[in-house]
Amino acid sequence: MKLWVKIMIKSKLVFATGNQDKYKEVSKIFAGTNYELLKVTDVGEMFEIIEDGDTYEANAFIKAKAIFDKFGYPVIADDSGIEVEQLDNRPGIYAARYAGENCTYSDNNKKLLSELKELEKPHKAKFVCCALFYDGEKLIPAMGELKGQIVDEPRGNKGFGYDPVFMPDGYDITCAEMELEDKNKISHRGRAFNNLKNLLEQS
Ligand code: ITT
Fold it and tell me: Which residues contact 175 (CB under 8 A, 6 or more apart)?
């Protein structure tokens, strides 16, 4: 009797990010697919990439192209941010360095809470993410959003960035109080990369 063994050859895909928290989230989404998700440091040395685009998609493409041009692997990248209605959608694409160069996540959260302190509640906000695939020829973007509000005090120690101050609509916990798998099911990044994964499977 012949034993047929199905060998699945995975395609390598480099995630063009220096953010290990994002890598953790997205590697869960690509687990069990035909893609082997690599870190930049698996193929070379990470270098500084100037994100000077004026949209999420433009910045995601800048990161993807920089890593593709340097290492030659097919790439995924994301650019994400948080938009607060009462702040005219700030910090938006500038979320990472909202409290200044070299600021910490905690500095950003403190600045955000202090800006909202005197304003009426709820402080409606949304996380936005553009995920994108690029292989030198094909460019596939996919968007995801998560609506919610900014709470008064940081809560929870899971996740990263603005997670401790963001409570999704329909929940009474912040994203930093959720397990990673649960955040991935509803988050801007989870939605964007699940959309992207489906588009890749169809392409
Ligand atoms: P890379 O550019 O290397 O991917 P980054 O952290 O600089 O990493 P962005 O330019 O996309 O990433 O900046 C997004 C910032 O928005 C990020 O640093 C966080 O402060 C915030 N952010 C994005 N997604 C978030 C999430 O899921 N939870 C909490 N904060 C998030």
Answer: 156, 158, 159, 162, 163, 164, 166, 167, 168, 183, 187
